[in-house]
Amino acid sequence: MNIVIAGLGIIGGSLAKAIKKYTDNYVYGINRSPEPLKKAMECGAIDEIGNCESLKTADILVLGIYPEAAVEFVRKNGEYINKNCIVIDTSGIKSEICPKMNELAKKYGFTFVGFHPMAGKEKNGFDVSEADLFNNASAILIPGDAPHDAVEKIAMFCKKLRFGMVVYTTPEEHDRMIAFTSQLPHVIACAYVFSPNCLKHNGFSAGSYRDVSRVANINANLWSELFIENKQTLVNEIDTLIENLTKIRSGIEKGDRDELAALLHKGKLIKEALGE
Predict the structure, then answer these.
(1) Strands 111-117 vs 138-142: parallel, antiparallel or unpaired
(2) Chain segment 228-276, per-residue pLDDT in tens
(3) Residue 39: DSSP 8-state
(4) Cα separations (Å) of 154 from 83, 128, 143, 172, 231?
(5) How far is CA 105 from CA 50, 109, 142, 259, in A?
(6) Domain 173-273 grouped into CATH 3.20.19.10
(7) Confidence at residue 250, expressed as pLDDT on a 0 to 100 scale
(8) What CATH class has 2-169?
């Protein structure tokens, strides 16, 4: 297949490297700045720098760019996209993006499948991309209006790239779950490192500090867009967290060891039940 990847950051770059490592597909790269394109060509992550002509022959177009930028890319270039092409995005929100992409798919004649690879790192950019980033990771697919065979084609594509599991869902369920599993931990990490004691942690910290603070090394522009696009769902999760923190705080403040122990034990049981 001819595959065009627009956006060679950590996700787009890793997908390009995985495609070249595990398949025989031909990869075109498109990127706003030239440096990642140069590096991708030098290391063999892409076969060619893409353009509008590349979109005319694309079997799959991967949008590895910010959500609203992905929509804008298709609005600007939709007339060039091969009508047999399957367009997939990689964004971390779907309720705002999928309806817009479905409308553009109808307008320009291509097929759209929502896609979210559940993998990443604290750092961003092509320099930290790697072919095995997706090994055993989940690939979330949002079929929407796409034909079954197109969705299954993307599912098989994911399996060839060494994803461990393919999950099918709706935009709404995706955003509810991602608010809890991904967005809320980033909120917690940033709020955690706001403490004045964070500046003094050296010599006093070990695994717990690293675990909680790890994702505070955040791409602020991207995550602020993701948070606001998923505003109400994320606010609900934050409210639930505040409610639970308040219960624990109350037990500590009252010195009620039985109440506090019961809350902590409840957390332990939930984690054990998940088998993690």
Answers:
(1) antiparallel
(2) 999 999 999 999 999 999 999 999 999 999 999 999 999 999 999 998 7
(3) H
(4) 16, 25, 10, 20, 29
(5) 21, 5, 14, 55
(6) no
(7) 97
(8) alpha beta
